[in-house]
Design brief:
Elements lengths: L1 H12 L6 H10 L6 H25 L4 H32 L1 H26 L4 H35 L1
Length: 163
């Protein structure tokens, strides 16, 4: 019986009929990788654009400085939640695949954004409405850019796989 096991091992190593582990690993490697760098870049650029727009509103709209500070805190909460969610998705992607990891990361962001906004509100003396409203708006706007990035990455990968 041991000679038979060695024969199977030699056949597997030679790529013969008993090479099912290689075909399984090939199937796993065809899963598209999680586009962590692209998502982090999109989140960073979106956050910078939102802070720039919010600062423009401060100067053009004659916004109260307390409202502005509350809005910046809300944007920080939304950005931090997106960054943590993306990293959680990147950690899950090798085991669960990109799409399942992205859905899990979206859940993390959805839960973390209000928790961070409320926590920051209680830590800092600012008006609550701007913190919560701008955190929710920032979350949605960053999420829209993030979804676009994820869809584009998936389309490029599926286009490369079919080519």
């Amino acid at each position: 019986m041991p000679d038979h096991d060695h024969a199977d091992a030699r056949t597997r190593d030679a790529g013969g009929p008993a090479s099912t582990p290689r075909s399984t690993s090939a199937a796993v490697s065809t899963l598209p990788p999680y586009p962590t760098a692209r998502l982090l870049g999109t989140i960073g650029l979106s956050a910078l654009a939102l802070v720039a727009v919010w600062t423009l509103v401060l100067f053009v709209g004659d916004l109260d400085i307390q409202v502005y500070r509350g809005g910046v805190i809300g944007l920080i909460a939304a950005t931090a939640a997106h960054l943590v969610g993306t990293m959680a998705g990147a950690a899950l992607a090798p085991a669960k695949g990109s799409m399942a990891a992205y859905l899990a990361s979206t859940l993390v962001r959805f839960m973390l954004t209000p928790a961070l906004a409320v926590s920051l509100y209680f830590l800092l003396p600012v008006k609550p409405q701007p913190v919560l409203v701008v955190a929710a708006a920032g979350y949605l706007l960053i999420l829209a850019a993030d979804i676009g990035t994820m869809l584009k990455a998936m389309q490029q990968r599926s286009g490369n796989a079919s080519a």
